[in-house]
Amino acid sequence: MNYPDTYSKEEQLEMDRQYEVLLDAWKGEKKESDVELVRKAYEFAALAHKDARRKSGEPYIFHPIAVAIIVAKEIGMGATSITSALLHDVVEDTEYTVEYISQEYGPKVARVVKGLTKLSSIDFQNSIESIQAENYRKIVNTMSEDIRVILVKLADRLHNMRTLESMAHHKQLKIASETVSFYAPLAYRLGLFAIKSELEKL
Predict the structure, then answer these.
(1) Is residue 79 exposed (0-12), middle (13-18) or buried (19+ Cβ within 10 Å)?
(2) What is the pLDDT tens value at each position of the chain, 202 positions in all?
(3) Which of 11, 74, 93, 104 is catalytic?
(4) pTM here?
(5) Residue 50 in 3-state DSSP?
(6) Which of 3, 12, 25, 45 is the most buried (most CB within 10 A)?
(7) How far apart are CA 88 and CA 162, in angstroms?
């Protein structure tokens, strides 16, 4: 693809490399239309996040690609989930809407992205007890709409935990507390034991 000039040549080469890792991580049947959907989502996400950087200084697009790789390789999901992972922060962080995602990528992907955007607004400021009561209720409601929302969210949290060192210390503590009290037990309940163990370890 023709990358925006906000990415250096080295970053473009690394993006290409990570995209190939994603395709290799994606197991099972790959219809041509599914591969095209994922490629389109990758190129769009690279454009939508072109001006954004992570705390580490690297391009933000590396995060959605990494989440998509976890979804494909470690959870074993298919095209809809991989596409949703690539797009999971677009509505929250850019001017693009859920309606636009639905128009371009279909209602299934839009439903997952919308669910992820709603989950990102969960308030973890209160006590652990109230977190678990209210937020598990929200999670269960979301799961009844589409389980893929929760699976992509867990992949998102796992990658954030793997790259936590670039955050300020007080934010590290907050994110780690949420993870051990909320996301690790959720992974356990869904039978994702390797992810549950890694979240706790991190």
Answers:
(1) buried
(2) 889 999 999 999 999 999 999 999 999 889 999 999 999 999 999 999 999 999 899 999 999 999 999 999 999 999 999 999 999 999 999 999 999 999 999 999 999 999 888 776 666 665 555 555 666 666 667 667 788 999 999 999 999 999 999 899 998 998 998 899 889 998 999 999 999 999 999 9
(3) 93
(4) 0.91
(5) coil
(6) 45
(7) 18
Q: Return the C-alpha torsion angle 134, 195, 162, 96, nearest 10.
A: -60
Is position 92 annotated as part of the catalytic site?
yes
- C-alpha 12/C-alpha 185 separation (Å) is 37
Is residue 175 a contact partner of residue 161, using CB atoms and an 8 Å limit? yes
Is 93 part of the annotated catalytic residue set? yes
CB burial readout 156-168, b (16+ within 10 A) else e: bbbbbbebeeebe
Closest CA to 82 of 66, 98, 61: 66
**Among 16, 20, 51, 92, the one annotated catalytic:** 92
Contacts of 65 (CB under 8 A, 6+ apart): 15, 18, 19, 22, 42, 86
Tokens of 29: 């049947």
Q: Which contiguous run of DSSP H or E holds residue 169?
A: helix 169-178
Q: Coil, strand or helix: which one is 53?
A: strand
